[in-house]
Amino acid sequence: MTRNARRARAIAIAEAKPNARMVALRYLMLAAGATAASLALLLSHVL
Asked: Model-level pTM?
């Protein structure tokens, strides 16, 4: 992601002013999804 895109996204997020708990939950779900995907990938290579 370019710096401009990141800045635009940060501005959009700041303007939207989402609930902090919702943001934390969204990142937590994203992290959980990434972990599950990497684990599945790892298992598919091992098995």
From this structure: 0.49
Tokens for 1, please give them: 């992601």
Would residue 37 count as lying in a domain?
yes
Q: Is residue 8 part of a domain?
A: no
| Range of the structural domain that residue 26 is part of | 19-47
Residues 6+ apart with CB under 8 A from 23: 13
Gyration radius of the chain over CA positions: 16
The domain tally of the chain equals 1
DSSP 1-25: --HHHHHHHHHHHHHH---HHHHHH
Predicted confidence (pLDDT) per residue in 5-24, tens digit? 888 888 877 776 667 778 88
